[in-house]
Amino acid sequence: MLRTLFALILLTLPATAQDVADVAPLPGWQIHTTTYDFDTLVTRTRDAVSANGMAVVTQAGPTGAAARRGIEIPGNRVIGAFNNDFAVRLLRLSTEAMIHAPIRLYVTENIDGTATLSYISPTTLLDPYGEAVSDVALELDTVFAAIAEDAVAR
After folding, report:
1. What's the sign of the alpha-carbon dihedral 90, 92, 97, 98?
2. Measured distance CA(86)–CA(135) in Å, rounded
3. pTM, rounded to two decimals
4. Cβ-contact 113, 37 below 8 angstroms
5. What is the 3-class SS of the chain, one letter each residue?
6. Residue 1: per-residue pLDDT
7. How many angstroms separate the CA atoms of 13 and 26, rounded?
8. Angle between helices 134-152 and 84-93 (to 10 degrees)
9. Spatial CB neighbours of 47, under 8 Å, sequence gap ≥ 6
10. Which phi and psi angles does 97 have, rounded to 5°?
11. How far does CA 71 lie from the centroid of its chain?
12. pLDDT tens per residue across span 66-97
């Protein structure tokens, strides 16, 4: 009985901040640490997407939904960016490669309150589809590098 009561009490307590590590380098990832806070970097990233001829076509993140459940986690947002010109060109070269459209930009809040912008380079994402898509992948590398540069610039 005492164990059951203790378990019920634990279930009613609000969850505390969850341990989430900062983004670590992985092969093909481009990681840009900043001194910006999370919300500022999300806004700057969305603005940089538009300024570089792309569109924000998706956005998702668990932070708000977790908070509504009483769980505190650091800011976390995935921003999908692409444009129709690249979509049509890529689709003509490889139907399968379109699984990677939109390209995702990942904004994460660091343990120290700053934020990081990360993404997997388009050439890494599109490498499995061979030489046919390599020119588009290289163009996308240039565009996403410019997006990142604009978003993290001081």
Report:
1. positive
2. 11
3. 0.85
4. yes
5. CHHHHHHHHHHHCCCCCCCCCCCCCCCCEEEEECCCCHHHHHHHHHHHHHHCCCEEEEEECCHHHHHHCCCCCCCEEEEEEECHHHHHHHHHHCCHHHHHCCEEEEEEECCCCCEEEEEECHHHHHHHHCHHHHHHHHHHHHHHHHHHHHHHCC
6. 57
7. 37
8. 150
9. 150, 151
10. -65, -20
11. 20
12. 999 999 999 999 999 999 999 999 999 999 99
pLDDT digits (tens, 9 = 90+) for 14-35: 444 446 667 777 889 999 999 9
Burial class (CB in 10 A: 0-12, 13-18, 19+), 119: buried
Token digits for 10? 């634990």
* Nearest alpha carbon to residue 31 among 113, 154, 129, 152: 152
For residue 43, give both structure tokens. 């806004």
Residue 115 to residue 73: CA distance in whole angstroms:
13
